[in-house]
Design brief:
Elements: H1 5-16, H2 23-30, H3 34-43, H4 46-74
Length: 76
Amino acid sequence: MKEKDSHIAAFETYYEMGPTRSLTRLSERLGVSRSTLRNWSRAFRWLDRLEERERDVATAMAARSMRTEVEERSTQ
């Protein structure tokens, strides 16, 4: 199955639901059956993508924190 814009949009909505996300809640929100969402989740590796994105966000936050710390120390 080729990933389409609708699949990507569903994943983005799923991601934005935060730590309380569930396929059941996503199904209710999007009006797409839970079984269809489960198939999309498997086919497009949503759990792997969530983990990857969380790592990317954590890395970006750490880098931003480091830059802020360096800037603060350089102005003292």
